[in-house]
Write a structure and sequence with these properties.
152 residues; 18% helix; 7 strands; 26% strand; 4-stranded antiparallel β-sheet; single chain; alpha+beta; rod-shaped; 3-stranded antiparallel β-sheet
Length: 152
């Protein structure tokens, strides 16, 4: 082989190698984007649904060293105490009675919370009802309870 033939073969090989390098370079810089065919009907979003397991984990409270179960101490429920609401008591004093000598209609003088009232039997003033009375004491009904008040 003569020198000229070798040079031409090597020259062709160098041009091919540089051609391949140039082709790779230009295809990476300016790549062709492939066109995709998209059907409008086929695009449907269906998210995955996860089924929830229906179980619960219960603790055994087992002693790992002895192999026995721990005793469960039950806490006693404390019932709240219900306190009865009491109405505040009022100051009641008995001063005496006014009557005619032979009459059955007696009028009693009673002071309730600092205000003086003239009351007859079975009369109610400020929630206080006069049940019975005599010269020395009267019996009153206040908040559903009977109260005996003596003369002062």
């Amino acid at each position: 082989m003569n020198k000229r033939l070798k040079t031409s073969i090597l020259l062709v090989a160098v041009v091919i190698v540089w051609g391949i390098i140039a082709y790779k370079f230009f295809t990476t810089i300016n790549p062709e984007t492939p066109t995709l065919k998209v059907d409008a009907k086929s695009i449907v979003f269906k998210p995955e649904t996860h089924k929830i397991d229906t179980f619960s984990i219960q603790s055994l409270n087992k002693d790992p060293f002895l192999g026995t179960y721990a005793k469960v101490h039950k806490v006693a429920k404390i019932k709240p105490r219900i306190t009865k609401k009491t109405k505040p008591s009022i100051n009641i004093t008995y001063h005496g009675l006014i009557s005619q000598q032979e009459a059955d209609n007696h009028i009693y003088i009673i002071t309730i919370s600092g205000t003086q009232y003239l009351m007859k039997l079975k009369q109610t003033v400020q929630g206080v009802k006069l049940l019975k009375g005599n010269m020395n004491q009267v019996t009153l009904n206040y908040n559903g309870s009977k109260k005996v008040v003596k003369k002062q």
